[in-house]
Amino acid sequence: MTESVTSAALPDARAGKPFLEVKDLQVHFPTDDGLVKAVNGLSFTLERGKTLGIVGESGSGKSVSSLAIMGLHKGSRAQVSGEIWLDGSELVSMSVPEIRRLRGRQVAMIFQDPLSAMHPFYRVGDQLTEAYLVHNDAPKAVAKKRAVELLDRVGIPSPQKRFDDYPHQFSGGMRQRAMIAMALMCDPQLLIADEPTTALDVTVQAQILDLMMDLQKEFNSAIIMITHDLGVIAQMTQDVVVMYGGRVVETGNVRDIFYRPEMPYTWGLLGSIPRVNRSGDGRLKSIRGTPPSLINLPKGCPFQPRCDYQQYVEGHSCVDELPELLQIATGGHRVRCHIDSEKRKQLFAEQIKPKL
Amino acid sequence: MGRYVIRRLLQTVVILIVISAITFFLFWATPANPALLICGKNCNSETVAQVNATYGFDDPLIVQYGTYMQGLVSPGGRTIGSEGSERECAWPCFGESYQNGIPVWDSISDAFPATLWLAVGAAILWLFFGVLLGLIAALRKGKLVDKLSVGLALFGVSFPTLVFGYLLLFLFIVKLQWLPFPDTANAALFTVGPVKWLQFYILPWMTLALVFAALYTRLTRANMIDTMNEDYIRTARAKGLDERTVVFKHGLRSALTPIVTIFGLDLGGLLGGAVITEQIFSITGLGKFAIDSVLSNDLPAIMGVVLFAAIFIVVANIVVDVLYAIIDPRVRLS
Amino acid sequence: MTLGVSESQSPEGDLPADHLAETSEAKQIEGRSLGQIAWARLRKDKIAVISAIVILLIIAVAIFAPLIVKLNGFPPDQFNRTDANGDPLLNTRDGGIPIGGLWGSGTSSEHWLGVEPQNGRDVFSRLVYGTRVSLLVALGGTILAVVLGTVIGMVSGYFGGWVDTLLSRLMDIMLSFPTLLFIMALTPVIADRGQDLFGIPDDNRLRLGVLMFVLGFFGWAYLARIVRGQTLSLREREFVEAARSLGAGPAYVIFRQILPNLLPTLLVYTTLLIPNYITAEAALSFLGVGIKEPTSSWGRMIADASDWIESNPLYLFFPGLALFITVLAFNLLGDSVRDALDPRAGRS
Ligand SMILES: Nc1ncnc2c1ncn2[C@@H]1O[C@H](COP(=O)(O)OP(=O)(O)OP(=O)(O)O)[C@@H](O)[C@H]1O
Ligand SMILES: [Mg+2]
C-alpha cells in the first residue's frame, strides 16, 4: 500500500527532474486584520543526498514553507498555491489521504519547538512507535526495537528505560533528540529540520548534526535545514536560500553566500555572526529596523526600509518596483536587488568584507 | 501517588471540620432562641427551661458543637435528651428534627436516592449531549453546525432552570398530556417498574441537565479548538496518522481532561443544586427536604442536609483530584 | 443550578494576563489600546448592540417603574375586584381565576397582561416592579462579590507566603460550600435576626439587603482564584518589577499597575455574574426564602403562578419570559465583551 504512491508516478517523467522542486509557492492566511502573506513565490530545488539551508530572520516564512511541503496547511484556512514536486508527485494539489501516506514515511519533519510538539499524556516511546506503526504493518515489538535503537543513536542514555518516560520527564535537549528520533523512524527520503539544534548545547548540537549527516549518507536522504545559525549552514549544507518577508532574496551554493554575497540583507546576516577575530570596531551589527508587515507588503523591494545602500540605485525603483530574482553569471547564484551587480561586488569588497 | 492521595485526604478532613464548624456556629448562633422554635405556641418559661436542658442549649456553643460532632465521628453515635428521657442516636447522628423528632439521618437517607437518581440521570444526559455537541461544533468550526450548537448552547445557558422546568411541565404534561403529573410514588424504580419511573424522571432530568449540557457544549468546543491548535496535534498529523486517530486519540484525550474535573465538581454540587427541579416536579429528594426544613425553621434538619451536601462536594473534590492525577502524567509524577 | 460563574463560562481561559500585557505593549505599534480595539469590535457586533439596548431598556423599566405603572393606573399591590365598568374580574366561585382574556388570564385593555388569580393584582405592574428587585439584588450581589474577589485575590497573589496560603485555603473552603443550600438556609435566619441585629423589622428592604449580602458573600471565591492567578503572573512582569525596584509601595503597584491589567477579566466576569444572580434571586424568591409578599419579584410570581399552570398558563409565561430575556441579554453581552477583549479572537 505504501509503495503505490511512488510507483504510480512514471519513472520516465521523473528522469532529469529534481527530487524536490518547489515552484512559486505562496502561502497566505486570511485573518481579521487582513491577508497575511507569509510566503510569496518561493522556489528552490533539492537533490537526494544533498542538504539545503534556509536562513532568514524570525517571521520570514521558513516554518510556514516547510509546513506547506508536509501538506500541513490542508484543512486550515491557509491559502496555498504554486507547485511542490516531490519524487514525481505534486503535493499542493494532492488530497489529504494521499499526502498522509507520504507524511512521516517519505517526508518527515523535526519541529521547531520540542516542548510543545510532543503529546503530554503519552509515553515518549509510544509516540515514537506510533510513527512507525502507521506506515509499517509490523508487530509492536519490532517498532519498539526500532524506537529504542533510534533513541540510542540520538544519544538518549539508557534508552530502554527512557522509552517508558513521559515527555515532561525529559529535558529540553532530550525532547529535541526524541523528536529527531521520531522523524527518523521510517527512514524518510526528505527530512525537514526546523531549527533542530536551537535548544541544544554546542557538544550535543555537533553530535546531532553528525548523526543527521550519517543518516543522510546511509539512506541518501535529502535534508532541508532551517536555522538561524550560519555556522550550521556552513557545516552542513551545499545550497542556501536566504528568505526575507516570505521571498527568496538570495540563493546559491554555500560558497556564493559566504564569500560572494550580493544582497544587502545577506550582508547584514553575515555581519551578525559572532567571531572572535572580528576586525574593525569588533562589534556585532544587527540589522536596523523591523521585519516588514506581511499584511501590507511594500510595493518595492521588501528590504528597502532597512537598506543602507539605496543611494546606489538611481530613481525610486527601490520603493516602487519589486526587484526580480536574477541569475548572476553562471551557476545557481541568484540575487533580488536593484543595485547593479558590479556595484554590489564592489560594495561588498570595499565596505562589507573588511568588517566581517 | 499514594502520598498525594493521603495528603489530599488530610486536607479534606481539615476542610470538613472547618465547614462543619462554620455551619454549626452560623445556624446555632443566629436564632434568638432555639428553644422557642421547638416548643412553639405553648412556650412558657418552664417549658423553655426544660427544652434548654433537654437539648443542651444551656451549654456553651463549643460544647454543643463537640457533642454534635461526636454523633458524626464516634461509631456509637451519641445520646440525645436529658436524664430520664434519653434516646440513642445511632451513627451518623445529625440530631433529631424539631418538627417531628425523627432522626435527621433517617430523613436524609430516605430522601437521598431520589436526588441521586435525578443527579445521575441528568449527568448522563448533559455529559452525552454536551460533549457530543461541543465536539461536533469544534470539528466543524465556523460551519452551520457549529453556529447552531453555539447558539443553542447560549440559549440553554440563559434558560433559568425555573423557567425551563415549568415550560417542560406545561408542554408535556398539561398541554400534550404525553406524561402524567408527577407522583412521588413513581420515583421508586423497584416498586413501580421502569416505565413509570422513566416517565417520572425524564422531565426532571432534562430540566436539570439543560444548563449543564449547554455549558459543557461550550467547554468541550473551546477545549477541543484549543487542543487541535496545539503543536502536538501537528506532530501527530506529520506522522501520517489519519484524521480520526488525530482527533480521538490525540485531540479528545487532552480536551476532555479538564472536563473530568469540572464534571466531578458539578456532580458533587448537584445534591444541593437540585432544589429547584425537585420543587417543580414534586420530587421528595434532599432539595425538597432542605427547603421544607428551612421554611419550618427546623435547625437540625437544615444543618444536617447542608453538612451532608458539603461532605459530598468535598469528597467529589478529592475523587476528581485523584482521577486527574491518574489521567495526567504531569500531575501524577511530579 | 449553579451559583456564580461556572468554570466553563469563566473568563480565565480566554484572557490570560500574558495576552493582555502583550497587547498593551503592542499599543505603541498599533496605536490603539486594547480598550479601543474591544470597543470598536463591540460596536460592530450586532448581537452585542442589540443586547445592550435590551439591557438599557430593562434598566430604564426598573428606574421608571412608578412612572410606567402610572400608564395603566394599577399600583402593583392593589387588589382589583372589578373593571372600569364595575364587572367582576375574578370568578370567585371558581377559586378566583380571572374572567375572560386570553387563555383565561384576564388580559384586557385595562390589564394588559391580565390579573393575578384570587387577588386581582395587575400582572403588568407586578412584572415592572419585579424588574427592580431582580436588578437591584443582582447588581448589589455582583458588586460585593467582585470587590471581595478582586481585593482578596490580589492580596493573596501579590503578597504570597502565609497570607496566600491562608486566603487560598479560605477560597477552597468557600468553594466547597453547597452555595445554594447555604444561601437558602441562611437568608431567612439572617432576616429573622434583623430585628435584634440591626433594629430593622423583617421586611423586604432588609430582605433585599440580606439577599445581596449572601449572594456576594458566597460568590467571591471563584473570582478571587482567577484574580490571584493573574496577579501572580503580573507580579513577575517587567513593568511591575521595574516599579518595585524604583521603590513603589504595594498599594501603588496593586492599584495602579495590577488592577488596570485585571480590568478586562473583571469586566467579563461581572457581565456574566449578573445574569447568574438574577437567576439566583428568582430561585430564592421562588422557594419562598427571598423577597416576600407584597413586594413583587419574578421568582415569587412564578411560584404563585405554578399553582395555576393548568387554568392560566399565561400568568406563568410572563414572568418566565421576562426572566429569560433578561438573562439572555446579559449572557449575550457578556459573551460579546469576552470575545471583543480576547486578543486571539478571529485568529487562526
Ligand atoms: N496560522 C497563521 N495565521 C496567520 N499568520 C501566520 C500563521 N502562521 C504563521 N503566520 C505568520 O507567518 C509569518 C511567517 O511565520 P513562520 O513561522 O514561517 O516564521 P519563521 O521564519 O519560521 O520564524 P522563526 O525563525 O521565528 O521560526 C509570521 O509573520 C507569522 O506570524
Ligand atoms: Mg519557524
TrEMBL record, chain A:
Alphabetical GO CC annotations of the entry are: plasma membrane
Q: Which domain of life is it from?
A: Bacteria
State the annotated membrane topology for this chain. Answer: Peripheral membrane protein
User: Per the UniProt entry, what are the Gene Ontology biological process annotations, in alphabetical order?
Assistant: peptide transport
Specify the ABC transporter domain's residue ranges: 20-270
GO molecular function, one example? ATP binding
Enumerate the SUPFAM superfamilies for this protein.
P-loop containing nucleoside triphosphate hydrolases (SSF52540)
Q: Which Gene3D superfamilies match?
A: P-loop containing nucleotide triphosphate hydrolases
Primary location group:
membrane
A Pfam family for this UniProt protein?
A: oligo_HPY
Q: Name where it's found.
A: Cell membrane
UniProtKB keywords: ATP-binding, Cell membrane, Membrane, Nucleotide-binding, Transport
Q: Which PROSITE patterns match?
A: ABC_TRANSPORTER_1 (PS00211), ABC_TRANSPORTER_2 (PS50893)
Output the NCBIfam families linked to this UniProt entry: oligo_HPY
Record family assignment: Belongs to the ABC transporter superfamily.
- Which named protein is this? ABC transporter ATP-binding protein
From TrEMBL, chain B:
Tell me where the signal peptide lies.
Answer: none
Q: Which InterPro entries match?
A: BPD_transp_1_N (IPR045621), MetI-like (IPR000515), MetI-like_sf (IPR035906)
**Places the protein is found:** Cell membrane
Q: Which residues cross the membrane?
A: 9-28, 116-139, 151-178, 198-219, 259-281, 301-327
Membrane topology according to the record = Multi-pass membrane protein
Q: Which organism is it from?
A: Kribbella turkmenica
Q: What is this protein called?
A: ABC transporter permease
- A GO term from the CC aspect: plasma membrane
Q: Which Gene3D superfamilies match?
A: MetI-like
Q: Specify whether Cell membrane is a keyword of the entry.
A: yes
Which ranges carry the ABC transmembrane type-1 domain? 112-324
Keywords from the UniProt entry = Cell membrane, Membrane, Transmembrane, Transmembrane helix, Transport
The family classification in the record reads: Belongs to the binding-protein-dependent transport system permease family.
Q: Which residues form a coiled coil?
A: none
The Gene Ontology biological process terms listed for this entry are: transmembrane transport
Primary location class: membrane
Q: Which Pfam families does UniProt cross-reference here?
A: BPD_transp_1, BPD_transp_1_N
From TrEMBL, chain C:
Q: Where in the cell is it found?
A: Cell membrane
Q: Indicate the transmembrane segments per the record.
A: 47-69, 135-161, 173-191, 206-227, 266-291, 314-334
Please tell me where this protein is predominantly located.
Answer: membrane
Recorded family membership: Belongs to the binding-protein-dependent transport system permease family.
- Cellular component annotations (GO), alphabetically ordered: plasma membrane
Q: What is this protein called?
A: ABC transporter permease
Topologically, how does it sit relative to the membrane? Answer: Multi-pass membrane protein
Task: Please name the source species.
Answer: Kribbella turkmenica
